[in-house]
Amino acid sequence: MLIVAALMAVGVALRLAVAHQSLFADELSTRYLLAGRGLDDVVSLVHTDAEITPPLYFVASWLTTRIDFSPEMLRAPSLIAGTLAIPLVYRLGLRTVGHRAALVAAALTTFSPFMIYYSAEARGYGLMMVLVLGSTLCLLNAVEDGRTRWWWAAYAACTCAAVYTHYTSVFALFGQFAWVLWAHPAARRAAIGWTVIAAIGFLPWLSGLRGDLDSPTTDILSALSPFVFGYVKSSLVHWAIAFPYLLEGTSVRGLPGVPALVALAIALALGLAGLTAAALRGRLRRPDRTLVLVIVLAVSVPAGTALVSAVGSNLFGTRNLAASWPAFALCLAALLVAAGPRLGIAAAALAIGAFAVGGLKMLDRDYGRPQYEAAIAFADRNADPGDVVVDGVSLIPGGVPSVIDLDFAGRHRVYPLGRSEVRYDPFRILSAPPPTPDVVKRAAAAARGGRLLMFLGPGGAPAREALAAVPPGFRRVAARRYAGINRIEVVVLEDQTASGA
After folding, report:
1. CATH class of 372-495
2. Res 473 pLDDT > 50
C-alpha cells in the first residue's frame, strides 16, 4: 500500500500541475453553463441542446465552484476522481489480475497522458471512469457476499451515477452486467433486480436523453470526426498511450516520443514472448472469470461505440472511450507480467517508463492548454477601449462564448473566424462560417482610427489568409506568440491612414 500511496502522491502532483492551465474547448462551455447560475438553472440548461451530456458533472462542478469560480475549482471533481482512480485500479487488479499486475496497472494509471488530461478537465470523463470502477468493485463484492444488500445497493448507485455522468459508460456497464449473468448464475436474479433499480433511477433524465439523441449537435460532431479507418486508428492510439486530443502537433512521435514508443514495443514483445513460451510448455491457463471481466470492460466501449458509429452518428473518439481505459491498463499490465518473474519486471519497467515520459511531457508548454489569459493580457496592454478583436483561435462551437468573447465583453468587439452562427432553441447551425477575408475586412472597417487585435494560429494557412485580407493602411506595431496545443499569435495592427501617417 505504500507504493500505491506514493503513486497517488505523484499522480496528484502531475494532475495539479495540469489543472492550473487555462480552460480549453469543452471546458469553456462548462464555465458558460455554470457562470452566475443557480443549481436549478444549470440542470435546466444542461437539459436543453446547449449541452448533450448528462448533468452529474455539472452539478458536482457547481458545488465546488461555490468555493471559488476558478479553473481549478471547475476541474476539482475530475481531479478528485482522477486521483481516486489510482487506488481503485489497484483494488480491481487485486481482484482480477493479481498483485504484481495490479501495481503495474496503478503505475500506468498514474502516468498515463490520457488519465492525466481527463483528471484535469472540467468535463465528466474522469468522474465517469471512477464511477464505473466503483460499480465493478461493488459488483464483485456483491456476488461474493450474497448475505448483504449493501454492496448491491452501492452497485446500483454507482451504475446510475455513471450514466448520469456520460452516456458512453453504458457500454462498459452493459459488459459487466452481461459478464455477471454468465459468470455467476446464482446472482442473476439479484443482478437483474438491482440493475433495474439503477435504470429506474435514471428515468427522471429520460427526456434529456431523448433530446440529446435527437440533437443536431450529434450530427455536427459526427461530421467533424467521421467514422473512417484513419480516424479510428488514431483515436485508439491516442486513447491508449498518447496525447488524448487529435490536434496538429500532438502526434505519437512527439508524445510519448520515439524512444518511449520503442521501450513500449520491447515491453509488449517481452510479454507476448512470455505468453508464447507458456503456451508451448503447456503452462498457459485458460482465463479465469475475473480476467474475462477485465477483458470485457476493456473492449466493451471501443466495440460499443464502433457498432453505434457504423449504423448511426459517430461516437468513436478518444474521450468517448474513457470508461474502458482503466480495464485496458489492467489488461496491459497482465500481459507485461506474463513475461515471467525476471523478464516481467523488465517489461513492466519499460512500459511504466514509457508512460512516465508521456506523462511528464504533459507538463511541457507545447502540450499545455492554450495560454489564452497571457495572450489576452498582452492584447490589453496594446489596446485602447473600442479597439477591435479578430478571434481565430477559439476551438468552440458558435453560440457558446469563448474565453476571448467573455474577457473582452463590453471593451472590444470580437469578430470570430470560422465559427458558424448557432442558436440553442433549437440548437442548429443557421449558416456556414462566413469567409475569412469578409470577416477581417468588416473587423478592419470597425477598427478605423484605432487598432485591430488579431488572435491567430501562427504559421498556418488560415493565419496567412487572415493577415493577407487586412486592408492597406494597417501597420503591425506589436506581436507575440504563445505555446500550447492550440498555439496563439497575437498581432496588433494600427490604422495609419486615419492618423495621416
Report:
1. alpha beta
2. yes
